Amino acid sequence: MEMLAKIVVGLVAVEHLYILWFEMFAWETKGRKIFKGALPSELFTPTKGLAANQGLYNGFLASGLIWSLFIQDPIWQANVALFFLICVAVAGSYGAWTASKKIFFVQALPAIIGIVLIWLCR
């Protein structure tokens, strides 16, 4: 169960590194494809700076999750992972509430699964 929890933490981190990449560096290309229909095409260029800022925050979430995987003390490892997974779950839930229900399933649900797995390991 502990290994499964770490795998989920790693997958959530990789997902947020991907979000960092497309929001910071590929907003006008990949971002258009990801948000096709959800955001008018003419808004991608003027919102490039805003998307990059969001991408940076996603990078911080990924960094915290990756950091948690290298912590040797099991209690601290779980606490740090839980903190960052809760941040992801809250952000994903807010995004689902304010932007698109899909965000819940793509971001919040994997984080919630990670939270449950870590709690089950305690």
Provide key terms for this protein.
80% helix, 5 helices, mainly alpha, 0% strand, 122 residues
Describe, in plain words, how this protein is organized in 3D.
- This protein is mainly α.
- Helix 1 (2-25) packs antiparallel against helix 3 and helix 4 (74-98) runs antiparallel to helix 5.
- The termini are close together.
- The chain has one domain.
- The protein has five helices and no strands.
- It has helices at residues 2-25, 30-34, 48-70, 74-98, 102-121.
- The model has no long low-confidence stretch (mean pLDDT 95).
Task: State the major sheet.
Answer: none
- Report how far the terminal alpha carbons are from each other: 10 Å
Average of per-residue pLDDT values: 95
Order of helix and strand elements from N to C terminus: HHHHH
Helical fraction equals over 70%
What topology does this entry show?
Elements: H1 2-25, H2 30-34, H3 48-70, H4 74-98, H5 102-121
Helix pairs in contact: 1-3, 1-5, 3-4, 4-5
Summarize the structure.
The protein is an all-alpha fold and 122 residues long. It has five helices and no strands. The mean pLDDT is 95.
